[in-house]
Design goal:
Number of domains: 2
Helix content: over 70%
Number of strands: 0
Number of helices: 5
Radius of gyration: 19 Å
Structural class: mainly alpha
Shape: flat
Mean pLDDT: 87
Distance between the termini: 21 Å
């Protein structure tokens, strides 16, 4: 448990989630006033899909960069590591 608390990734993730929660709480009234038509929901789904696709492509690019630099990741799945 102590080792887990010393990881900066955990603290950065928690700080990011707290920041998002505070921002959403402060803007909750304005967010409730928004109404999305069906077309708006499709744009949101498309944006989410493109975001995930770009993360995957970035992982592939990092893997290719490591191979190009003559440091192939042996026994390490770079793409899932990048996506996490």
């Amino acid at each position: 448990m102590v080792k887990l608390l010393r990881q900066p990734k955990l603290w950065i993730t928690l700080a990011s989630l707290i920041f998002i929660a505070v921002a959403l709480a402060q803007q909750a009234g304005q967010l409730r006033q928004l109404s999305l038509v069906a077309n708006g929901w499709w744009w949101l789904v498309l944006g989410l899909g493109l975001t995930w696709l770009s993360i995957l492509i970035n992982g592939l690019a990092w893997r290719d960069l490591l191979v190009w630099l003559k440091h192939p990741p042996q026994g390490l799945a770079v793409v899932p590591l990048f996506v996490r």
